[in-house]
Amino acid sequence: MSTYVLSLSDTRAALASVGGKGLSLAKLAQAGFPIPNGFHITTDAYRAFIEASGLQPRILALLKDADPALPSALETASASISRLFAEASIPADITSAITPAYIDLNRQSSIVNRKSVAVRSSATAEDLPEASFAGQQETFLNIRGEEDLLDAVKKCWASLWTARAIAYRANQSIDPNTVALAVVVQEMVDADFAGILFTANPINGHRDEIVINATWGLGEAIVSGRVSPDTIIAEKDSGKVRRYDVAKKTVRTVLAESGTREETLKGWRVRSKVMKEAQVHELVGMARSIESFYGSPQDIEFCFAQDRFFIVQSRPITAMPPEPLEWIIPVKGAVLARGSFAEFVPEPVSPLFATLAVPIAQKTTCELMGSIGVTDENSYVFAVLNDYVYVGFIFTPKMTWQMIKASFQLLGPIIRTAEKRARESREKFLSVVQTWQESDVRLLAPSELLQGTREIFTETALYYNMAQSGTIPTSMMTEVLFGWVYKTLMKRKDDPAPEAFLFGTENHAMRADKALWDIAAWVKTQPALMKYLSGALADEIGAVFLARHKPNAELAEFSECFEAYLHEYGHAIYDLDFAKPTPAEDPTPLLETLKVYLAGKNSPYERQRAALELSERAAVNIIKRLDPLRRRWFVKLLKWAQDKAPMREDSIADLGLGHPQMRCMLGEFGRRLVKAGSIPVASDIYWLEEYELNALAILLENDEPPPHFAGEIAERKAKWESMRHIVPPTTLPKVRWMNKFFPSNEQAGSTLKGFAASAGKVTARACVMLGPEDFNKMHTGDVIVAGITTPAWTPLFARASAIVTDIGGPLSHSSIVAREYGIPAVLATGVGTRRIHDGELITVDGSEGRVMLN
């Protein structure tokens, strides 16, 4: 016989009958933890409702036609399924089991709001150690009366088929025939404050730390991302507060007559601590007991009312990082950060880049610092820690004074000479690259191949230093100055933001986009070629393009056009580590964008035209109303900013001018090592260190047998892969004042904060891409989640619905290009690529700078 209702602490509760959330609460209640009273509506009730209504075949038919890779298709299917649930009636035998349980709960209620309950979905495939399905189904708060309760239960059942839940299960390969939903009904707690607690630090892996997010009112404000909570880090053993970060809390979620509402906070609560130290101590003790009870780190939701804590959920923490690593600063007194040069190597670097390229970068940077009067030894520090690059200073009084003095003295010359220095540096860079390109790499000795790599990377580092001390600050300062003057003296409420006047500029990214569009336009004039390229997969087209012999004359002509495009634009790098292939070597992402352009979508010419029209129209309107003095300054500063804006993108794109030749020379050395039996494949050369290659070069040149490195390479690759999934500290040591300049990597909870880089709000599937090797995972409409993007990533923006990055700022490539494409962007989340799961549906709010992990 089916059992439709069980008491919350009933020992018969099992995953199959009460779902993950319900089972967790049942166990906690049985163990005596403070759980609000309630009852389960079992999966038997859901299945009986589905069977009586004949819904399952209709649900499966709707799912069959919905492509999991297309959010719009899932939303359409979900809306149709929701209507089916709304139109169906709950059988009488189910209502006759639920209603008495609700009446009895009111009779024995221990909480003031006697007739108010929380109705929470509990899926049979959620909150398991191996997969987090948190947030995929719905919760309804402050439900009063039998009729509203039954309606909420039906809505919970329907939420088994929300778009995000369907996508999540598809991503986890869970058969839709096997899922069912239970519902948990509990007394509604009118919380003074509430929050989320992690019994291990989910960011840095410290098992001895407890992390608490807390806010006034109901915890819904944290879950929905509408409020920034206080963040508390406490010692697990003692409950002592190690760190308490007080957030500015502008709203709280409170109970309304029905449901909930947001209440604007004023007065002392806005900037005051939510929790007292004694309360933290009490909660930590309770959390420690829950973790001990379950035997694993837990993600706990709590609330506080009537001077006591209630636990409303506990589930395993998924994707815990490994045990914390040591981050030892190699130079005494140095302050290091993941900024500047390190921003262009967001991932762990290859052993060859760490030992050959990073020392060159440090040497050239210190020489630059010396040339501007900063003469302290080791004034600029480069370090590779746990495979991550850090840069920083030793802040001695002498060095600090020299930096301040140089900043004031050189500000004017930097701006005046930026273009000239950029031109001269680029010419010298190209000259060195071309010298080595004229050599036949097959005839060069191994030591010469290494020497060529060193010389080209030296020019790369010098060009980078030119950009950092010339084009990038010039673009940034002119834009910031224009923006400040415009907003302070000229802008009215409805006028465009200052950055709108700089859209559509003719930079490297725009030229590359238009050149690819031009190829698509030509392809459209060739019917047979158009049919083939439109229908073939991008990797298939890429294989044909890279093949020596082409199947027909049309493909040969297309390949010639595309080859010319790559010659001009294919050097733009994904990051500075030369272990990563350039777009010229793997053109698949470009071909995916070409297919979008073949469909006539996202024309760069139209985007540029619209942006320029908006800018010109707004400028004319503003000039008309300004007095002569302000008009003169507006025109002068706007022209200045528009003239300098392209320099930033152009110089960043040109950082890769030497990468194709460096990879050519290192590839040749690698092929010789394979032939000699030293490494398994040529690309394994990047997993060797410089001193090893120096020794191997001597052995090969003397015709002596080299040692085998297969074992070392396998170990280094495994370590690199492990390091790839950790969250490196943004600064070393942790210096509070540096938090203003670098993103926090200690964000826990279901909302990530970042920089609001491009307005708009979208909910879509996340595609986490740590590098170009992940580009093939992307579907049109995905949210790009990356460490950082460079000009080489630009073709992906044509297919993206939003952008989320770990690092970056208002003037970074990601910010600029996202705004030009009109898609939301949240940058500098610090932990986006680690906290967001590939395939997860997320909400990106580019206006507020928040990412909600649904």
Could you explain how this protein is built, in words?
This protein starts with a strand and ends with a strand. It is an alpha+beta fold. The chain has 25 helices and 25 strands. It has an eight-stranded mixed sheet with strand order 18-25-24-20-21-22-23-19. The chain has a six-stranded antiparallel sheet with strand order 9-8-7-6-12-13. Residues 126-135 have low confidence and may be disordered. The protein folds into five domains: 5-187, Dna Ligase, domain 1 (2-Layer Sandwich); 193-316, ATP-grasp fold, B domain (D-amino Acid Aminotransferase, Chain A, domain 1); 342-379 and 395-461 and 658-723, no CATH class; 478-656, no CATH class; 736-853, Phosphohistidine domain (Glucose Oxidase, domain 1).
Helix and strand layout, with pairings?
Blueprint: E1 5-7, H1 15-30, E2 38-41, H2 43-53, H3 56-64, H4 71-87, H5 92-107, E3 116-123, E4 139-144, H6 146-158, H7 163-171, E5 181-187, E6 193-198, E7 209-216, H8 220-223, E8 230-235, E9 241-245, E10 251-255, E11 260-264, H9 277-294, E12 298-305, E13 308-316, E14 334-337, H10 351-371, E15 380-385, E16 388-394, H11 397-437, H12 446-490, H13 508-523, H14 527-535, H15 538-546, H16 553-569, H17 588-598, H18 604-625, H19 628-653, H20 659-675, H21 690-701, H22 710-723, E17 731-732, E18 751-753, E19 755-758, E20 761-768, E21 783-786, H23 794-797, E22 802-805, H24 813-821, E23 825-827, H25 832-835, E24 841-845, E25 850-853
